[in-house]
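Before we proceed, please read the two lines closing this message. Let me know whether the structure tokens fit the sequence:

…
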Amino acid sequence: MHLTSAAGVIALLDEPETELKYYALDKLDSIVNDFWPEIADVISKIEELCENDSFKHKDLSSLVASKVYYHLGAFEDSVMYALGSGDRFNVNGHTEYIETTIAKCIDLYTQLRVSRQKMAAPLTQKLMIGWKLSLTKCFKGASPTKSSSRQLE
């Protein structure tokens, strides 16, 4: 069955049961590349789940939010949510989303280091982890992206 709209899946985000919200997020993650304009209309609901400490699938909601922001061209927001998605963000993947997000993470970290701006410690730590994961990917045999190669220079 081929979906023509994400409306039914999006409606599940309003359900009180955590498992229905998880199902909705899992399905949205799999269809976000096709339905990101519809999902962008409810990004605030997804962000609320990212910030809800009692919601046990914050990592998945962060990943979906990251992908939506990526499609919107809001790369800094995309990076911030990707960093909150933990292991759900596959640094070894080879999609345009992953490569761009890693490159933007490196760019953001580099800009912060060069300008010596003070940021919140957890954010700086997350950017550092993202930067190290990117370098590890390059040196463990995965071919570095042009962006990563540029940053390494």
Q: What stands out?
A: The chain has eight helices and no strands. The two ends are 48 Å apart (CA to CA). The mean pLDDT is 82.
